[in-house]
Specification:
Elements (H helix, E strand, L loop, with lengths): L9 E5 L5 H11 L3 E6 L12 E4 L14 E6 L5 H11 L3 E7 L24 H8 L3 H23 L4 E6 L2 E2 L7 H11 L1 E6 L5 E2 L2 E2 H13 L4 E5 L6 E2 H12 L3 E6 L1 H6 L27 H5 L7 H12 L13 H13 L3
């Protein structure tokens, strides 16, 4: 792959102040690139005073982008294809390269593990897309997140044939993660005591530190990479027990993991992913979702920091956050009740 590393680029970031977008901007500025942000100016508008900031809206207010030229576009905020179509079409002659942040959620038929980039994706009939366009965007995204992301990919590829880089991340974790999923386990283990651990100890989990993802994406942008890449981690298979044990060792708290089987948890209305992030029950028949093939990205230079570093840095960032309603994780009283029932039954 021909590299352009060392050449300073003019990069337009669509979004750029939240989580991955924020870390991408930090990485780009750290590499000496000239960054322009385009967003609505509502999320952390005080960030990055050294950048040019263009205020607009992807839903019909792109005027500030007209007549401008950039080397590359990084799209961190595209969720519906009709909006992505407008921005990609407008920028097709204004930029040499377009990076779109998609998701492994595009994939369908998740029964088997090690899904690669050629795996079956979720599809929507054209008439259903038209129905979704008439809905509130947030509602449409909730109903068909993965299918809409795939249609966004197609719009980018049409506008930038041979010069588009499609990234399909798995669960992104680390500092600035507002989803509370990865952080649930770190905070819970830091609290100490008996911790409910779900299902099989050897069940595989995958996630990627936002900084590793951002640094790799930037290198690929600098190289004008083309194609679609799964991007999650770690490099070798990680089990739920290995993850939780590493959390215990890194946090250094007195914690006892109480492993409870799937049937018992489901019988107590404990939900996978939302109540217990990173856990998807075997009965969901979705082994492929957290066992994605990343060999293509590894070949393209994707690297990972240690799990211990991600845990430490996430915990440090969590300590700076103001109290807020958690978006994911098991309610403490519910956890206590389930642990009590499990112990009382002698299981």
């Amino acid at each position: 792959m021909q590299t352009e590393r060392g050449r300073k680029m003019k990069i337009l970031v669509l979004g750029g102040t939240r989580f991955l977008g924020r870390v991408l901007v930090e990485a780009a500025l750290g590499s000496g690139h000239e960054v322009t942000l385009f967003n609505r100016g509502k999320t952390d508008p005080e960030l990055f005073p050294e950048t040019e900031k263009l205020v607009g809206d992807r839903d019909g207010n792109l005027d500030v982008l007209k007549g401008r030229v950039w080397d590359a576009v990084i799209d961190t905020s595209g969720y519906v294809p009709w909006s992505v179509r407008e921005s990609a079409a407008l920028l097709a002659d204004a930029a040499d390269h377009y990076t779109f942040i998609s998701s492994v959620s595009v994939y369908d038929e998740l029964e088997e593990p090690w899904i690669d980039e050629g795996h079956t994706v979720g599809k929507l009939a054209p008439e259903r897309v038209e129905e979704l366009k008439r809905m509130e965007a947030d509602e449409a995204i909730r109903e068909h997140y993965g299918e809409l992301k795939f249609l966004c990919e197609r719009e980018v590829e049409r506008a930038f044939p041979g010069r588009s880089f499609i990234v399909r991340p798995g669960l992104i974790v680390g500092p600035y993660d507002f989803t509370d999923r990865f952080a649930y386990w770190i905070n819970r283990i830091a609290k100490g005591g008996e911790v409910l651990a779900p299902g099989r100890r050897d069940k595989s989990v995958q996630f990627i530190d936002v900084r590793d993802l951002a640094e790799w994406i930037l290198r690929m942008v600098e190289s004008k990479a083309d194609g679609t890449f799964n991007a999650t981690g770690p490099e070798t298979e990680l089990t739920m027990q290995e993850f939780l044990d590493t959390c215990k060792e890194t946090v250094g708290n007195e914690t006892e993991l109480i492993w409870i089987d799937e049937k018992f948890l489901l019988g107590h209305e404990v939900n996978g992913w939302t109540d217990l992030p990173l856990w998807i029950p075997d009965s969901s028949n979705m082994d492929g979702f957290l066992k994605v093939d990343i060999r293509k990205a590894l070949h393209a230079g994707l690297k990972f920091r240690s799990l211990e570093e991600t845990i430490r840095d996430t915990l440090a960032w969590e300590s700076t956050r103001t109290p807020h309603e958690r978006k994911a994780g098991l309610d403490p009283q519910k956890e206590k009740a389930v642990l009590y029932d499990w112990t009382e039954k002698g299981l």
